[in-house]
Structure formats: structure tokens, C-alpha cells
Recover the amino acids of this structure.
């Protein structure tokens, strides 16, 4: 085990090297770097804080056990986050919490909601908008929720998303477009219901 001062100076490559040698302190470093983002990602897909924490804990354990086969040249975060996203999607699919909805939408509605959410002067309205977005996200299929989270929260490119899922880039583009369309439609209906 390494000392606290050495741990504080550690970087991702050193952590991976330690893990490959069986030293758990490398995992401690990676947990400290990526746990919060991973839990948020899983929560955005599952909408269940406890479940999100369990998914991330399991993902770190799986990462530890599969680290010997990990290509240390590649960055850890995209590989790990794909694991978290895939596990969250599988968990939600198993729980059968998805609700199918229609597909009609206007692209300007999502932009309108995002603009209102960013306005400092409308913090109360921002909370309402966030709740509407959360509610609409829950009505997407788990896979649609995952691509929205990967693209807009994790800021992954369509190419990165395709590589992580083993799907063609065109398939990811189609899935992302369908997810955005459904989300816009849901947000538009929510906005109409409030008027």
C-alpha cells in the first residue's frame, strides 16, 4: 500500500498500474475521481439514488477484477462510464419501469426549456423545468435515457457512444434522434398542459 501523500500525487496511469499489480490503493484513487460522476450518471438513467449507488459500486468491483485485461494506454473514464451506463440500462430494463410514449415533437421546445433552466432570474421556474425534464426522461426507454445521458451529461461523441456499445454510428445517431424527439414531444405536452 502507498502512503497518503503518495496517493494524493497519484494520477490515473499510476492508479491503473497499481491495480494491475493487485494493489487496491489504485482503486481508491479511481473511486475518488469518478464515483460522484458515475453515481450521477446512473441516477439520471435509473432515477433511484440507492440503485445508482449500487450500480456504481458493482461497476468499480467489476473494474477491479477486470483490470489486468484493461489496455492501460486508453483512458479509464470513458471505459468505466460505459460500464456504468450499460449496467444502469440493464437494471432499469430488468425492473420494467419504462413507459412507451408517442414520437411527435418540435425541436424548439427543448431549446426553450434549456434556456429557461439556465436563466438566473428564473430559479423557481428552473426547478419546475428540471422536474418536467426529469418526468419526461422517465418516460423514455432505458436505452433512450442512456443515450441522452451519454451525449448531454457525459458529453460523449456519437462515435464514442458507438464504440462503447458495439453499435454502428448510424444506429447511435438514429437512437439519439428518436430519444430527442420523444423528449421534446413530452416536454411540449407538459408545457401545453400547464397553459
Amino acid at each position: 500500500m502507498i502512503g497518503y501523500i503518495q496517493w494524493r500525487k497519484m494520477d490515473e496511469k499510476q492508479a491503473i498500474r497499481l491495480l494491475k499489480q493487485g494493489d487496491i490503493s489504485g482503486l481508491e484513487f479511481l473511486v475518488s475521481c469518478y464515483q460522484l460522476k458515475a453515481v450521477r450518471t446512473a441516477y439520471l438513467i435509473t432515477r433511484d439514488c440507492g440503485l445508482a449507488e449500487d450500480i456504481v459500486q458493482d461497476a468499480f468491483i467489476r473494474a477491479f477484477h477486470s483490470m489486468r485485461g484493461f489496455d492501460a494506454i486508453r483512458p479509464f473514464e470513458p471505459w468505466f462510464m460505459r460500464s456504468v451506463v450499460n449496467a444502469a440500462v440493464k437494471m432499469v430494463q430488468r425492473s420494467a419501469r419504462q413507459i412507451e410514449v408517442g414520437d411527435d415533437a418540435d425541436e424548439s421546445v427543448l431549446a426553450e426549456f434549456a434556456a429557461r433552466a439556465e436563466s438566473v432570474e428564473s430559479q423557481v421556474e428552473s426547478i419546475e423545468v428540471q422536474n418536467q425534464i426529469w418526468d419526461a426522461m422517465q418516460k423514455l426507454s432505458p436505452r433512450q435515457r442512456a443515450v441522452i445521458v451519454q451525449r448531454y451529461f457525459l458529453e460523449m461523441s456519437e462515435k464514442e457512444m458507438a464504440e462503447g456499445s458495439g453499435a454502428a454510428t448510424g444506429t447511435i445517431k438514429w437512437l439519439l434522434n428518436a430519444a430527442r424527439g420523444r423528449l421534446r414531444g413530452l416536454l411540449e405536452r407538459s408545457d401545453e398542459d400547464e397553459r
